[in-house]
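Have a close read of this protein, sequence plus structure tokens, and explain what the tokens say about the fold. Thanks in advance:
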Amino acid sequence: MLDPHGLYEVAGELPALDGPVLIQALTGFVDAGSAIQLSRENLLENLESEVVATFDMDQLLDYRSRRPPMIFVADHFESYEDPVLALHLVRDQLGTPFLLLTGPEPDLQWERFIKAVTELIERLGVKVTIGLNAIPMAVPHTRPAGLTAHATDKSLIGDHESWLQRVQVPASLGNLLELRLGRSGHDALGYAAHVPHYLAQTGYPAAAELLLDAVSKVTGLALPTGKLRESAKLVREEVDKQIAEDEQAARLVTSLEAQYDAFLRGRANSLLVESDAPLPTAEELGAELERFLAEQTRDD
């Protein structure tokens, strides 16, 4: 393996910190409802921050698989949006410093990148790393959003109730980082917000609010969520309005609610419920609602 230190460049001197939290918010894998992106933007737009280190994207990104955007105007190319993977020093609403890792998930050199991040974690004295994620689930938007928590040590997430037992999933850089940190003696945990899968392709600020509230609760950081809450209310009102105008869509949401409520009552081991008349599957419900909401967007 090449020297991990060669993957990043520090902006000046590393700050002297007293056991900061590091929030990892890489995008590019599963970001249902753009919850990771919304969380990152909310923190950087509403809190004081500065870049501590940047990573060499030429070594980490497959540009052909994720082509950065360029702007063409009339007869010339005007701009190019450089992909940036950076570690920020951020101060919460009370002035407490924490670290925020943002940018696209690397396509290449995962193990080397993890070594580089671990090196920075050790140099900065990070006490715990927290990953943000958002996954599409067969849940209705009319019920409280759920959260899956995971950690290198169960004590880090307390009595959080698990939604899953054992399942094989595609690896992501963020989840692998958590695994590697745990095996090297560092505390790490993560949260995955549950996003209604018929809203997974649109902005869902309620999920971002849920993620940041979870981070605040476990770390004590004072993170801003007011604007996310306001946006979530507007999104909820718009979705409710669209569904209320279509009887079939309303029936589908009602079916999802029945499945969800049955799951919470412990009458099933999945988000499905037995009945005399078979209910449509979660995939069928999601596909139908996605179609309906897409049509409403086009009409607008």
Observations:
- Confidence is low (pLDDT under 50) at residues 267-280.
- Helices lie at 35-46, 57-60, 110-124, 173-183, 205-219, 226-244, 247-264, 282-299.
